[in-house]
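A quick aside before the break. I want you to see a complete sequence-to-structure record at least once, exactly as it would be stored in a machine-readable document. Don't worry about memorizing anything.
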Amino acid sequence: MIDLIILAVWLMLPAYIANPAAALLGGGRPIDMGKNFTDNKRILGDGKTIRGFVLGSFCGTMVGILQILLAPSIAPYLQGYVSEGMLTHASYVALLTMPVGALLGDMVKSFFKRRLGFERGAMMPVADQLDFVLGAWVLTYFLDGAWFTANFSPAIILTVLLITPVLHMATNFIGFKIGRKDVPW
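That is the input. The structure line, written in tokens, reads:
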């Protein structure tokens, strides 16, 4: 079981970093430029900013590059848990698509939350915890399906779906405690 958790976190790390980095480093001009959709509600809201998207994507990509550089050194220590090939094989396309997809998934969820009448910061269980995972997976599969299917087995997918809500709530609580989030969820 520990091998699945280690591998799941390793594979998801660029997306896991992009999401809180966007919130932590964001601010400034909203991506939707303050415009309303045809229903007269904001398209996304003030929480989705250009700076957050760019810096969140950048941070996730940098973590992915760091993973590629560190993988040969880390692999021998994890030999009993994961194969060396899993840690050292990386797709440069996936490095960009995982963090960008994560943030796009979060934006798609925000769009639908606005349509359903949710205010900024209102909790939408399950969707709030897994939107960025789905976004990362869809974009990565679309742009590098071979890498995605070689690395994301059903067991890894299930592990990600089980551990992500816990990790997401923990990082949101930390963000709340340091004053970067208005709500602890």
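Two observations worth writing down. The chain has a mean pLDDT of 87. Residues 12 and 51 are 22 Å apart (CA to CA). We'll return to this after the break.
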